[in-house]
Design goal:
Elements lengths: L7 H12 L3 H19 L18 E6 L2 E6 L6 H6 E3 L6 E3 L3 H24 L1
Antiparallel strand pairs: 1-2, 3-4
Protein name: HK97 gp10 family phage protein
InterPro entries: HK97-gp10_tail
Organism: Bacillus thuringiensis
């Protein structure tokens, strides 16, 4: 079946090679991808017009825990979810629309992030 020379066997071999990545390399690549995403996300977050101690833009961080890498906001910036998805107004009449800055950034940069990760993995092999 592999003797068809149609390219699928080679593609399957490449995919299997990518699946057998060392955990240390995987964490390093994920960390680089998360830092890239955070760098693209930061300019899309508008600074609050209020004189606050904690702005969303300043509280963005990349966290590596065990075998997981994530882009998070610090605990003081708990309100990021309200800005992203919207919320009811304080008086209960009406809603504030969400900004969707995280989702829009990932939609715009997702393919680039995947390409960066694949390229870094290939470079390490």
């Amino acid at each position: 079946m592999a003797s068809n020379n149609n390219g699928f066997a080679e593609a399957l071999e490449d995919i299997n090679t990518l699946l057998r990545v060392n955990k240390k390399v995987e964490l390093h690549v994920l960390d680089e991808a998360a830092k890239y995403f955070a760098s693209k996300l930061k300019p899309k977050i508008k600074a609050s017009s209020k004189n606050k101690r904690t702005h969303l833009r300043d509280s963005l961080k990349v966290v590596v825990k065990d075998d997981r890498v994530s882009v998070e906001f610090k605990d003081e910036a708990w309100y990021w979810y309200l800005v992203e998805h919207g919320h009811k107004k304080a008086n209960g009449k009406g809603r504030v629309k969400g900004k969707h800055f995280v989702q829009n950034t990932f939609d715009a940069e997702g393919d680039k992030i995947a390409d960066i990760m694949a390229q870094k993995i290939m470079d390490r092999m």
